[in-house]
Write a structure and sequence with these properties.
Blueprint: E1 3-6, H1 10-21, E2 26-29, H2 38-44, E3 48-50, H3 53-56, E4 61-64, H4 68-75, E5 85-88, H5 97-104, H6 109-115, E6 121-125, H7 131-135, E7 144-151, H8 154-166, E8 170-173, E9 196-197
Parallel strand pairs: 1-2, 1-4, 2-3, 4-5, 5-6, 7-8
Antiparallel strand pairs: 6-7, 7-9
Length: 200
Amino acid sequence: MRYSIVGTGNVGRALAGHFARQQIEVAIANSRGPASIADLVKELGPSIIATTLDAALDADVIFFAVGFLQFKDIAAARTDWSGKIVIDATNAFMLPPDVQEKELRGRLSSEVNADRLPGAKLVKAFNQLPAKVLASPPPNNHGRRVIFISSDHGDASAEVAALAERLGFAPIEVGKIAEGGRLIQARGPLVLQNLVKYEQ
């Protein structure tokens, strides 16, 4: 299974840090090209591979760690996303109300994003925590941070949950986008909930 992260902002860097700590190889890309990621790769180590945006989209599991408005630009790079699992780590609640209305038209952001990826299996995850918290270890390095996962595709949800486990998180699958996914969308009750699971 090949993994990639699209986006080198705070969320992309936080995710790359978790891959590096677990020594899981992941490609990372942005719109500025691999040279712009050289320092990040040097800092994080050999499991983080700088690549082009087009090459990053060849991965099997792709994190979209970009702003909500940038999501559609990346999605437009391909007309067929069959065989891909796309992890939607975006949030739309920072958008001005008029922009939200124009972009969402009353729908959930992940419903809109799923439509932009024909053939893909979209999974909403890694979006409920601020990037700084996402990047940091649990208090006193005990337990695992909880990550909520939602998808209309059970197999994709399970795949992302397994990856989250490998990355050191405690995944909780909350069901389909229209149901459990609503809990981790903008202003949902699970957004910004920084929960830690402690082992018995």
